[in-house]
Write a structure and sequence with these properties.
Blueprint lengths: L1 H7 L3 E4 L18 H4 L17 E2 L2 E2 L1 H7 L2 H10 L11 E4 L9 H8 L7 H6 L6 H12 L5 H6 L19 H7 L1 H14 L5 H8 L10 H9 L5 E6 L9 E9 L4 E10 L5 E12 L1 H18 L5 E5 L2 H7 L10 H13 L2 E5 L6 H9 L6 E4 L7 H11 L4 E6 L11
Parallel strand pairs: 6-9, 9-10
Antiparallel strand pairs: 1-4, 2-3, 5-12, 6-7, 7-8, 8-11
Helix pairs in contact: 3-4, 9-10, 13-15, 16-17
Length: 419
């Protein structure tokens, strides 16, 4: 354990509670331990011990931050790590190799042993309940490590090859012995019949596409049926609803191309008449969509709180985010800092957090994708500053023109899949 400590410690993120984390040797910025992040020729202030030394009056000490760290790290700390008031508790550790933030021996072992990429073929062999000797035999077959006649002949061993399992003897090879031979074919047929697999289009249809009811079994009729098949579509009308009289509405969204991959967030604030108050979008670098959506919700709520835009309705198209903020679902460690800020701001202002379909979140969705084409942060303070596509969305929302949400039906019972 002591030998692995130096490696494992980098996978622990410390959430600031009382500022007890070590400034240089513990990961409290999500960038890693700063002793290994700052340039090697950068002077380290050894007088800084705990994170609380960087906090003065419930806020970051700007002068000390810029004196102690490079400019990019200092700006990251000020903008990404929110300090409201130290709670006097120990900082909380989160294990970054699991989504829950809880330590598991399995995740630590997989990290320490530098596991290679999984081979999909071998992964299908190693199934719980399969005896090891069967798994080992199949592994030898795939690797060609069975002493069949063709393998022995490659080793310059003279032999007259003959398969004794078939009525018409052929050369004994791994392919013939386990797949194409008469005996192998009979064995596979027994197991295929037992599980209802006959290796034809009809059986594939029943397994992969159970929603295709009343499909014929004759080949020609089945082809005609599939060519003329039309999926059942379910539609729903979705509006962007105007907020109550005197209220504001903030729509937020986040996206990641790759998950994790290049990500961005966007939010927009409108008044009770549907007129634009403010919009903002920004690219976040490599992140997950969950982090991007949490960042969008946090930034939108912080802007409305700082500018006293209350009472407020916050809308997000992420049901996960809504349930996490309300405490219905457990919060993943990767967004625990953002969710903590959202909860604190929610308790200090008059705000409702609601879930909305993406079709009712069109402007925030547009801004999120717009951020991928601009470096830095894009802000629009008036309707005339917006791109033409954004103006069109605002005008449609103000006139209460509906959006149509269309999805393939998952069943044929006519039930509404949007419930």
């Amino acid at each position: 354990m002591l030998e692995a400590r130096d490696t494992v410690e980098h996978e622990i993120w410390w959430e600031i509670k009382g500022g007890t984390s070590n400034v240089w040797y513990e990961n409290w910025t999500k960038l890693g331990a700063l002793n290994y992040v700052v340039p090697t020729d950068y002077p380290i202030n050894e007088e800084l011990v705990d994170v609380s030394d960087l906090i003065e009056g419930g806020a970051w000490n700007d002068q000390l931050l810029h004196q102690s760290f490079p400019a990019d790290i200092a700006e990251h700390i000020k903008s990404e790590i929110y300090i409201d008031q130290l709670q006097g508790n120990w900082d909380r550790p989160w294990w970054m190799l699991t989504s829950t933030g809880r330590y598991t021996v399995n995740s630590a072992w997989n990290m320490l042993r530098h596991r290679d990429h999984e081979d999909s073929d071998f992964k299908q062999l190693c199934i719980k309940g399969v005896p090891f000797k069967i798994y080992f035999l199949l592994w030898r077959v795939l690797k060609g490590r069975i002493p069949t006649d063709d393998v022995l002949m490659k080793m310059k061993i003279p032999i007259a090859s003959k398969c004794y399992c078939c009525s018409i003897p052929q050369q004994e090879t791994i392919q013939h012995l386990f797949l194409t031979g008469q005996f192998a074919t009979d064995v596979w047929q027994v197991f295929k019949n037992a599980v209802g697999i006959h290796m034809n289009l009809t059986q594939m249809k029943q397994v992969r596409y159970p929603c295709l009811k009343n499909a014929p079994f004759l080949w020609n009729e089945l082809i005609d049926f599939l060519e003329g098949y039309k999926p059942i579509l379910v539609s729903k009308i979705v509006y962007w609803n105007l907020p109550y009289d005197g209220w504001y509405k903030c729509n937020s969204d986040g996206a990641s191309r790759g998950n994790p991959g290049p990500s961005s967030y966007g939010f927009c604030v409108r008044n009770c008449h549907g007129d634009l108050v403010y919009t903002e979008c920004k690219e976040l670098g490599i992140n997950t969509s969950m982090v991007a959506k949490a960042m969008a919700l946090k930034k939108g709520l912080m802007y409305c709180f700082e500018n006293d835009l209350q009472p407020l309705i916050m809308e997000t198209d992420s049901l996960i985010m809504k349930n996490v903020v309300e405490g219905i679902w457990e919060c993943p460690w990767s967004i625990v800092a953002e969710v903590d800020i959202i909860k604190k701001l929610k308790a200090r202002c008059n705000v409702l957090i609601l879930h909305v379909y993406r079709e009712g979140n069109s402007l925030a969705y547009f801004l999120t994708n717009l951020a991928f084409y601009f470096a830095g942060t894009s802000r629009f303070n008036s309707f005339v500053d917006l791109p033409s596509a954004g103006k069109r969305i605002i005008n449609m929302d103000k006139q209460q023109i509906p959006n149509i949400r269309i999805r393939n039906a998952k069943n044929t019972s006519g039930m509404d899949i949007f419930t």
